[in-house]
Design goal:
Layout lengths: L3 H12 L6 E9 L2 E13 L2 E14 L2 E13 L5 E8 L6 E7 L5 E7 L2 E7 L5 E2 L1 H11 L6 E8 L4 E17 L3 E12 L8 E5 L5 E8 L2 E8 L1 H4 L8 H5 L1 E2 L6 H4 L3 E7 L13 E7 L2 E6 L27 H11 L5 H15 L12 H7 L4 H14 L4 E13 L2 E15 L2 E5 L11 E6 L3 H6 L7 E8 L25
Parallel strand pairs: 9-10
Antiparallel strand pairs: 1-2, 1-15, 2-3, 3-4, 4-5, 5-6, 6-7, 7-8, 10-11, 11-12, 12-13, 13-14, 14-15, 16-21, 17-19, 17-24, 18-19, 20-21, 20-23, 21-22
Length: 499
């Protein structure tokens, strides 16, 4: 499973509040190891301010280098009024594009191109939201007096979403810079309003509101950007294997007989992560305090309050193109004369397990259409394509983000690794289907569910690097296992897996 997309998202969050005069460069580090650079250009021409940010990012997965580039351009008035935004990312072999321009009536016409498929829609600009120049002007207007707090609304051109950010001025500090320089800058702390857990970003800005340094936690790493010369920013990158860092040692060998039965895990999560796991019809979660959780994974209805499908569980989106004629025809071809949704899902799962024939270690995050055409990818491509095929047949489906046990990966044995699979709503409950692993078993621990959008997917991975699995106990039925003191069992019963 890839985590580099999350790195891109965090960097965009860090840089979204800056608009820099002329051309400036920043080096990008993970735990002190150089992994990329950021070039930022600001051009003031007439009544338009154009800010262009180009992020080059290099990571490694099992000795395979992954080169990513994200380019964002925003156009605003000198007072920060939004006029246009453009973004391109190369999460896979196909470039993903976003282009938005304001119309005479104030709405934005937005064109999205993902996996070779383009869609155009209208966006009513969110009240108070700002792009790069507007965010910089807001920081300068509020000043840098220690103790000052205020809120700004940052518009993310890549996700086309607004982040409500609370800014706190910490004070002035002397900061060491990569070019053996020291600068006196203003320390600010940005936090998403209403967010839980350790998600704050620290930035250091000069008097004009230009970012000179930024630090953020990233999946167990310390992500850092620092302003420096072009030569410094373009210095050779170093290898950082995020997959290796995300692995979680298993407390015991998870043999096939154990995987076929319900399993109770005792898990410790370090740090402030109030809801690190999700409850589903196959997983029950109980907190016993101090970051320790009891997680039961089985095959029957584990909870009595799992939500029914939402509209986004049946709707197409830019990544899960279930309304595509190609996707619909492909699903019908695979399912043939199947007479029930369960039978259709089993045929889809079985077919896709063999259809995606190349394990693409260099793929970031591909859409369903791209994966159908390339037959290349790993667990995220499996999950997104299977979800799209299910939705194209009217079966509610969603992508699950979590971890799964493997006997060996990247030279490491008996570990849980990041993973993704599909859940379909059949006969009144959510049932898992894993085409990458060929079957769902009790070593699948869910961290979150989503609609297949990559940003939702990687948001669920924020606890990776903070999880320890302390114990795994099997039972033919989890009702046989006593709950810890003070916890009441609410399991609906065991049963055989669906896939």
């Amino acid at each position: 499973m890839r985590r580099r997309l999350a790195a891109v998202a965090v960097l965009l969050c860090l840089t979204a509040t800056s608009a820099l005069a002329d051309q400036r460069w920043m080096t990008v580090l993970l735990d002190g190891r150089k992994v990329g650079n950021l070039e930022i250009d600001r051009d003031l021409a007439g009544d338009k301010v154009t800010t262009t940010q180009v992020l080059n990012f290099r990571l490694t997965r099992v000795h395979t280098p992954i080169l990513l580039q994200t380019r964002i351009k925003t156009v605003e008035s000198p007072l920060g009024a939004p006029l246009a935004f453009y973004a391109s990312t190369n999460m896979s072999s196909q470039q993903n594009l976003v282009q938005g321009e304001v119309r005479d009536d104030g709405a934005f016409q937005v064109a999205n191109t993902v996996g070779g498929q383009s869609k155009v829609n209208l966006l009513i600009w969110p009240t108070g939201a700002s792009l790069a120049e507007g965010q910089r002007l807001s920081m300068v207007a509020h000043g840098f007096k220690p103790g000052t707090t205020y809120q700004i609304r940052n518009f993310d051109a890549v996700k086309q979403q607004v982040a409500n950010v609370e800014v706190a001025v910490i004070g002035d500090e002397v900061v060491d810079m990569p070019d053996d320089r020291r600068e006196t800058v203003h320390h600010l702390r940005e936090s998403l309003v209403g967010a839980t857990g350790d998600h704050s970003v620290d930035i250091w800005v000069d008097n004009q509101g230009y970012i000179r340094r930024g630090i953020s936690p990233l999946l167990g790493f310390r992500l850092e950007m620092a302003a420096c010369s072009e030569a410094c920013a373009k210095a050779p990158d170093q290898d950082v294997d995020l997959l290796r860092a995300a692995m979680i040692q298993s407390p015991r060998p998870m043999v096939m007989g154990l995987r076929a039965a319900p399993v109770r895990y005792t898990v410790t999560v370090r740090g402030n992560y109030p809801q690190p796991f999700v409850e589903t019809d196959e997983q029950r979660v109980n907190s016993i305090g101090d970051g320790v959780y009891i997680i039961d994974v089985g095959f029957g209805r584990m909870t009595d309050h799992e939500a029914a499908p939402s509209p986004e569980d049946t709707a197409p989106n830019a990544w899960v193109q279930s309304d595509s004629p190609q996707i619909r025809a492909f699903a019908k071809q695979i399912t043939g004369d199947a007479t029930s949704d369960l039978q259709r899902m089993r045929r889809l799962r079985s077919y896709i397990s063999d259809y995606i024939s190349r394990k693409g270690l260099d793929v970031g995050y591909a859409s369903a259409l791209e994966t159908m055409e390339s037959r290349n990818g790993d667990c995220t491509e499996h999950a997104v394509l299977l979800t799209a095929l299910a939705r194209s047949m009217g079966i509610p489906a969603r992508v699950v983000t979590g971890i799964v046990y493997v006997e060996r990966m990247g030279g490491v044995s008996r570990v849980f690794v990041p993973h993704a699979w599909t859940q379909a709503f059949i006969d009144g409950r959510w049932i898992s289907f894993d085409s990458a692993q060929r079957r769902f078993d009790s070593t699948h621990i869910a961290l979150g569910v989503g609609n297949g959008d990559p940003w939702r997917f990687f948001a669920a991975m924020s606890t990776l690097g903070h999880i320890t699995i302390d114990r795994a106990v099997a039972a033919s039925n989890l009702m046989d296992l006593p709950m810890p003191s003070g916890i009441t069992a609410n399991i609906g019963g065991g049963g055989k897996g669906s896939d």
